[in-house]
Design goal:
Order of helices and strands of chain B: EEEHEEHEHHHEHEHEEH
Helix content of chain B: 25-40%
Low-confidence stretches of chain A: 70-81
Structural class of chain A: alpha+beta
Strand order of the largest sheet of chain B: 6-7-8-3-9-10
Number of helices of chain B: 8
Shape of chain A: elongated
Oligomer: heterodimer
Strand content of chain B: 25-35%
Radius of gyration of chain A: 33 Å
Number of strands of chain B: 10
Strand content of chain A: 15-25%
Number of strands of chain A: 12
Structural class of chain B: alpha/beta
Largest interface: A-B, 23 and 25 residues
Distance between the termini of chain A: 28 Å
CATH superfamily of chain B: P-loop containing nucleotide triphosphate hydrolases
Radius of gyration of chain B: 18 Å
Distance between the termini of chain B: 41 Å
Chain lengths: ~425, ~260
């Protein structure tokens, strides 16, 4: 008897007991559905975050004082512990000989200040940034102008604010250009409003007030380094191209180590990290989470497989006489084995396909619930889940099928 | 192979022995059984329970293998074969009829008849044709699409006979074929077996403990304690339906005689 005939016999046996077949499949359906949904959702979150990082700006490197361990406290703690980063450090990175792959450098000094508007005050994040910040970070204005070179030179008290700050400070005024606000009792004039950029690398950048770096360093957060140089919290470095990013990173590291007089063998007192590295590590974390969720879901597949084995064993016992008869009229061991194995594989694969359908529904439901995500039925998950359910069927079918095949026809025919 | 066998013997068994181990006791079910069956014979094997009837049936049906002795079925030695070869022999050369019919419950009469051909590698179209033909031979052409639970006991056994026929076996082995039937259906089944034997020349071996059924065959072999004690021709075989079933008392007397 060939595979086709065996398949037909198996299908016939299953359709003779539809309710039982459906209930048996349920375990696999739910298992596969869960695997597919979770993996699709995981991939969607991964894609979303990757996309968010992209919006920061390409071929960008971040240099922050301190190492990752000591970085929690930001600029202040680094200034106390290590040498911190200064304007001089940033300027040194533009050396065309030592750092040929560096295209541009942006400086940022961050802090928090009490922001007061018409007697209402709250604490907000303040960033002192250089005039090229908007180019480096893809910051677009929805109104007014950005901080320019003149503001830097004049240490002007002007501010460009994020859209969330607008909502918070000026709930009745969508266009607060020209309004006066006080940062730590220093009066500033709002000259521009940024477009929303959403949450990204380190914080929600829509929630920040941007002022000229020089103003921040002299008036709002004055902090000087060893050479009388002003401290900064972050240097943005733009590499000339995306594939020269890691070369630029090496050049930056070399320059800063020399400026900070770090002996070879000692650790850096700053951290240079590229966008690609952040992306990779974030994606890595996410894929671990995705795999972990997938593994939990896979356990339910396993349970479904055990359900199949259970029912197959019952079925073999119930059909002992049938097996005896089939053997009497000429079925070989392998015919019976194949029949029962196929029955269990068909159950599992059919359950798997229905589970993919369920997973599709689950994925669509997630897409509806979280409109920022665009979850897609991941082909990888579908293939993995159906292959795996087929294997589950095969594996858990082996024992019942072997039992059926090895029945002695005489005893089987006499079985009551 | 059957054709090469010039003496027309379908079954030749020589000194068959079979011992079972039940716990620590050896049960000698067959202690050297020898007989031959010519092609076209209709014979019965009788004996009280424990006489070795079932064991002999299993051996003749290639469901079991003898410890010693030889068994030529249609000229081929089948005493010492592997499982798969035995399955092949059962499929091609033996038609089984059981006391309890053993039809597949969720399968139509036609599909039940196709079963042996399924394992014989017969293509679907030919399977259907041959199964229909066999059902017609047992008078059930109009019941081909019925499931066993829609058929009477006698009709079910007739489906089983059709199933036994489809692969043109060398011999049909019927194990108490009328045991689960009322006497009218029993006679019907015997009538079919007789006509298959008479008209188509099919060899039929019936195992029974019913002397009345045995009187419908041409030859009776009696087993007792694993040995053949009687092997004789029936003087005047009955045609099914020709005689009323005698009372149980006279049958027993006859059996004793």
């Amino acid at each position: 008897m060939n595979l086709l005939e065996s398949g037909r016999v198996a299908l016939g046996a299953l359709s003779a007991n539809k309710l039982r077949a459906a209930l048996t499949m349920l375990g696999i359906i739910i298992g596969v559905g869960a695997v597919v949904t979770l993996m699709s959702a995981g991939n969607a979150v991964e894609a979303y975050i990757t996309n968010q990082f992209r919006s920061i700006g390409s071929n960008l490197l971040f240099v922050a004082p301190g190492t990752f361990d000591s970085q929690r406290g930001g600029a202040a703690s680094a200034a106390i512990g290590g040498k911190g980063l200064t304007n001089g450090d940033a300027a040194a990175l533009l050396d065309p000989v030592l750092a040929p792959d560096v295209l541009a450098v942006g400086l940022e000094l961050t802090g928090a200040a009490v922001v007061d508007y018409r007697g209402e005050s709250r604490i907000l994040s303040i960033s002192g940034v250089g005039p090229n910040y908007d180019d480096l970070r893809n910051a677009k204005l929805s109104a007014g102008r950005f901080l320019d070179e003149g503001d830097q030179v004049a240490e002007s008290r002007v501010a460009v604010i994020g859209p969330l700050v607008v909502d918070e400070l000026f709930p009745e005024n969508a266009l607060p250009i020209g309004e006066q606000i006080r940062l730590d009792d220093i009066q500033f004039r709002v000259v521009g409003v940024l477009e929303s950029r959403g949450g990204s690398a380190f914080a929600n950048e829509d929630n920040i007030i941007y002022i000229p770096l020089s103003t921040a360093q002299t008036r709002v957060f004055p902090s000087r380094g060893r050479r009388g140089d002003f401290h900064i919290s972050l240097i943005y470095v733009q590499a000339i191209t995306e594939d020269r990013t890691s070369a630029a990173e090496d050049q930056i590291t070399a320059i800063l180590r020399q400026r900070h007089e770090i002996q070879s063998g000692d650790d850096d007192d700053f951290t240079a990290i590229s966008q690609a590295e952040i992306l990779t590590s974030a994606a890595g974390v996410l894929s671990v989470v995705t795999i972990f969720l997938g593994a939990i879901a896979a356990i339910s597949l396993l349970v479904g497989g055990i359900g199949i084995m259970n029912i197959m064993l019952v079925s073999v016992t119930e059909r002992t006489r049938e097996i005896g008869l089939r053997k009497a009229v000429g079925a070989r061991r392998r015919d019976i084995l194949l029949q029962f194995l196929l029955e269990s594989v068909v159950l599992a694969v059919a359950g798997g396909l229905l589970g993919v359908g369920l997973g599709g529904l689950g994925t669509a439901a997630i897409g509806r619930a979280a409109s920022d995500l665009a979850p897609q039925l991941s082909l990888q998950a579908v293939l993995l889940a159906t292959t795996f359910s087929g294997l589950v069927g095969l594996f858990f079918g082996i024992y019942p099928a072997t039992r059926a095949a090895s029945l002695n026809p005489i005893d089987a025919l006499r079985y009551e | 192979m059957g054709q090469a066998n010039s003496n027309h013997q379908v079954i030749e068994i020589e000194n068959l022995t079979r011992t079972y181990r039940l716990g620590k006791i050896d049960v000698q079910a067959l202690r050297g059984v020898t007989f031959r069956v010519r092609r076209g014979e209709l014979l019965s094997v009788m004996g009280p329970s424990g006489s070795g009837k079932s064991t002999l049936m299993n051996l003749l049906g290639c469901l079991d293998q003898p410890d010693a002795g030889s068994y030529l079925l249609d000229g081929e030695e089948v005493g010492q074969l592997g499982d798969d070869q035995l399955a092949r022999i059962r499929n091609r050369s033996i038609g089984f009829i059981f006391q309890t019919f053993n039809l597949l419950a969720r399968t139509t009469a036609l599909a039940n008849c196709e079963l042996p051909m399924l394992y014989g590698g017969v293509p679907p179209r030919e399977r259907k044709e041959r199964a229909s033909k066999a059902l017609a031979e047992v008078g059930l052409a109009d019941r081909a699409d019925h499931h066993p639970n829609e058929l009477s006991g006698g009709q079910q056994q007739r489906v089983a006979i059709a199933r036994a026929l489809v692969n043109n076996p060398a011999v049909i082995l019927a194990d108490e074929p009328t045991g689960n039937l009322d006497s009218k259906s029993g006679i019907e089944v015997m009538s079919i077996l007789q006509s298959l034997n008479r008209d188509a020349g099919i060899t039929v071996l019936i195992v029974t403990h019913d002397p009345f059924i045995a009187r419908h065959t041409q030859r009776v072999i009696r087993l007792q304690d694993g040995r053949v004690v009687v092997d004789e021709a029936v003087a005047h075989p009955l045609r099914a339906g020709e005689a009323e079933r005698p009372s149980e008392v006279s049958l027993e007397e006859e059996a004793r005689a």
